[in-house]
Amino acid sequence: MAQRKPFRWHIAVFLAPAVLVYTAIMIVPLIGTLNLSLFNLTEAGERVFVGLRNFATLFGDPRWSESFWNALANNGWFFLVHMLVQNPVGVMLAALLSSPRLRMAAFYRTAIFIPTILSFVIVGFVWKLILSPIWGIAPGMLDAVGLKALFAPWLGREEYALTTLALISVWQFVGIPMMLIYAALLSIPDEVIEAAEMDGVTGWSQFRKIKLPLILPSIGIISILTFVGNFNAFDLIYVSQGALAGPNFSTDILGTFLYRTFFGFQLQLGDPHMGATIATAMFGIILVGVCVYLFAIQTRLRRYQF
Amino acid sequence: MSTARHSTTRSLAAHGVLILYTVIALFPVFVIVVNSFKSRRAIFADPLALPTSETFDMVGYQTVLKQGDFLLYFQNSMIVTVASLFFVLLFGAMAAFALSEYRFRGNLLMGLYLALGIMIPIRLGTVAILQIMVASGLVNTLTALILVYTAQGLPLAVFILSEFMRGVSDDLKNAGRIDGLSEYTIFLRLVLPLVRPAMATVAVFTMIPIWNDLWFPLILAPSEATKTITLGSQVFIGQFVTNWNAVLAALGLAIVPVLVLYLIFSRQLIRGITAGAVK
Known about the structure:
- The complex is a heterodimer of chains A (306) and B (279).
- Chain A is mainly alpha-helical and 306 residues long.
- Chain A has a single domain (51-300), classed as MetI-like (MetI-like fold), CATH 1.10.3720.
- In chain A, 70% of the residues lie in helices and 3% in strands.
- Chain A has a two-stranded antiparallel ribbon.
- In chain A, strand 3 (264-265) and strand 4 (268-269) form a beta hairpin.
- Chain B has 279 residues and is mainly alpha-helical.
- In chain B, helix 4 (70-101) runs parallel beside helix 7, helix 4 (70-101) packs across helix 10 and helix 7 (142-165) runs antiparallel to helix 10.
- The interface between A and B is large, with 85 and 96 residues.
- Chain A: The chain crosses the membrane at residues 12-32, 77-98, 110-130, 160-185, 214-234, 274-296.
- Chain A: This is ABC transporter permease.
- Chain A: Belongs to the binding-protein-dependent transport system permease family.
């Protein structure tokens, strides 16, 4: 009979600290939250098990479902703007930065990353100032180039507010795709690039045929991180538009909807059970997205070892 | 010769695009810093002008330094950020190595389990976390924050680092094994130095949300002795909302420390890149 392989202790040693801290501080409390979504209060204020009835309320009751679908649609648009603007710009900046013998590359990289290190408190405050029609740096600047007619109080209009906030968020976070792609581009060995140059593959076609396939796994990571980040987003909307996500809920995303429900606002009391229900729904949405990535996309990406 | 001219044009174009984007990125920071040094009237009269000898005014900074205990807040933020960062990088790299290097039963499941944390904001579990901290007497200590941020940072660190570690050559590690190195030595001496650029990247991404977090300091450690700088400046903005000099000065001061931290790691990033990699 074949002998069993001895237990490999080093694997347990490598995994233990991360798994322990993560389980105790993150997973256990989160399970508590998911569990909460299955309970609700009776008229007498007793906590009873209600099964999936909270979800039926969230998706079926017009008072709840309208806000939910509105928040979900807004969140989808928020994500789309990031995918279409943030990630292509990030890849382009990284490609420019990694071009050989570029002077001041360190300066550019540092400068472009600076918005990412600012807190939402600062970002929300400063963009409100810049776009404010009263203090008015933006209208003043547009006036200087003769385009004053284009100015509108973007954050105050229902049709523009969400896109404006998405673009502010892109402005803040473009440094993240830039850095990850930059690191990936630098890890391409010089030999590969030199071989391409020997064969006369340079410039754009070198980027498309040699570098792009090599950085595709990083682009995959960035896309999924953007997805997760956007569907968890909350802070920027909260600091610039408040918990009500005005004007008229046009900037409401799942994070702000969750916050309002969980902690309450103005006249509405906080409802931990419905809050937990929304949190669970968000968890489901994100889970589906991540599974699509892990099983449909990541397994098809080819990895190269050097 | 034509190639030389061609590449000059190309590098000029590259500089043009990068300078343009740099201006876009830095403009709002410029607005904050410039206006924090101006008198109240000058802020409103011409927000884009540099401070002149007439409009120069430090009143904002004076108000901030008189009011808040900014040095202590700064120290608290530093301790929390650096300690969490250390644990995230160490534990994260260890787990990432186990996941990317060994085939064992439940590997994929463990990877998914650890990746769950990227998807769910840890804030959803706040109530239960608060209960745990109260039960263990850690409320209003920096330890509570360090624990929470370590748990928060681990999933992303494991995810990114294992992605990078899969690219480390197997031949190198097997050569180490043939030479009789233990698995721990292979991890510490061979793999860690090779993924240093990735470590610096993870460090930068872990550090930012920790430094800028408002939520957990507010709930777990709001006492005067444990306030972080973000909480401190947020409270300050709330109190002085019409005093623009003071608010702009507070924002300016809140930018400086994280900028310094970032510059330190960004240098490490370059060092890691130039020194590392399979030769």
